[in-house]
Amino acid sequence: MKISPDHHANWKNRTLFHGDNLRFLRAMNSKSVDLIATDPPFNKGRDFHATPESLAAGAKFQDRWKWEKDVHEEWVDQLKDDYPQLMEVIESARYAHSEGMGAYLCFMAVRLLEMRRILKSTGSIYLHCDPTASHYLKAAMDAIFGSENFKNDITWHRARGKGLNPTKYLSNCDNILYYVCGKNSTWNQQYQPFDEDYGKDWKRDEFGPWQSENLTGGKAGGPSAYLPFKGVLPAPGRAWAPPVRTKFPQELQSRLPDHYEELNPLEKCEALDEAGLIYWPQKAGGKPRYKKYLSTLKGHYMSDLFGDILPIQAHANERTGYPTQKPLELYERLIWASSNEGDIICDPFAGCATTLVAAEKLNRQWVGIDIWENSRDVVLEQLAKQGLTQKGKASRSAHIFTEEILFTDQLPERTDDQEAAVPFLRVKERVKEPEGPRWSRAEMYAYLLDQYGYKCQGCDREFDDPRYLQLDHNTPRSDGGMNHITNRILLCGPCNQLKSNIYTLSGLRRQNKKRGYMAPGKDPLFP
Known about the structure:
- The protein has helices at residues 21-27, 67-70, 73-82, 84-96, 99-118, 134-145, 250-253, 265-274, 328-338, 354-361, 375-385, 441-452, 493-502, 505-514, and strands at 15-18, 33-38, 46-49, 60-63, 119-129, 150-157, 173-180, 191-192, 203-205, 208-214, 216-217, 239-240, 278-279, 289-293, 300-301, 305-306, 344-347, 365-370, 389-390, 400-401, 406-408, 469-473, 488-492.
- By secondary structure, it is α/β, with parallel strands linked by helices.
- The protein has 3 domains: 15-161 and 170-191 and 302-408, 3-Layer(aba) Sandwich (Rossmann fold); 203-296, no CATH class; 428-514, DNA Binding (I), subunit A (Orthogonal Bundle).
- Strands 16-6-7-5-2-17-18-1-21 form a 9-stranded mixed sheet, sandwiched between helices.
- Strand 9 and strand 10 (208-214) form a beta hairpin.
């Protein structure tokens, strides 16, 4: 598959767009963002309000969803036509859980599609949620990003739940779904500090605590990796795998020859032994091991359980008064792990500006979107609290200036190929759309039923219920949406599935005639 190149951003750094994020996401260049870290609504079935007299006073949003009220017909058309697998996920949530869950998932799906489009080939996304909808969101993201690009379902132990006589386990955790856009995504390994007692029972010499580590590995290192070292063979199926120079304290690295990295595995083992970095067990038959020093270790690899970051305390400097605000430290960790300095960070649900402030602190570029009219004030105040902004341009120092932050409701102008969806996720080829009226699916369905009755236009079978018939295209779809009635047909389920593999109605009818599904003679509908 040919991968299109990454594009430049069509907005300036430190831009905060004001309005519905779907409009702005659709106006952003494809493959222009390095990382998305966002905290959208959770479908909690509640109304959220900031506390009075707080920085975010007046901010509110309704986290309740109804299919009839919140789902746009245009979204359903797009999903059914271009992303049927994703639509199946939404319908499953709608029937398994509720209409509200289906509406929420539809709202998120059309936005996640655009987020996937604007991410670079090396990009990643962190989607904050909780158990209310995390499993449905994961299914949707599997369909959009590909299940092979799922990395982690991070658990943030955000609080110690309170409750009197609870009837279930206390709910103390949020989820953060982490996906990448491919094998070359950015990753900076993070570590968790060791416990105070870690290493106290290790052996010790003048270079600090150490313990012995396996000198063999499972990967071949050439013929010499299987030869005897000081008369000892590696275990069956194993090979000598001596560590790199940097695995040892700086003082001990000087004991190794300058050309250490050029030696073969057996020669490296011998060089380590001469430097006093090999541990020989006293027990007969024991295999040699190398000395691993505590001073060379950065900590345990960071796990997907974040239990070391507390929620925002009542009197914390960063607190805005908004009940769903997340701690700055949490988003700093995500941004540090999956981006580099100068990268572009996007938050389509900017809210309390946590992602934007974290990006600024870590020397990243950023762009945010929020629907609240006072979001600019929150961004400026939060940046100021961190010592990142000042007014005027008398001196540059290490700060940015309030004038450098753009707050606008104007859509950026696309300068890329103008693709409206992620090409490799589409199920149909694109062709030019003819001029004519653009009808809704419901209008086209009713029109075709009135014209042709309850008959499948692929196999000519008549049905007694229109629910057996599905609206589809005669020829492949166009970039413009192809809602033109002249290109629409009604097919039964089997014909619709068969046509998806053939792409044209004429090809479908030829296949049906070969199978004897149609009466011989001229087709009166599509000659």
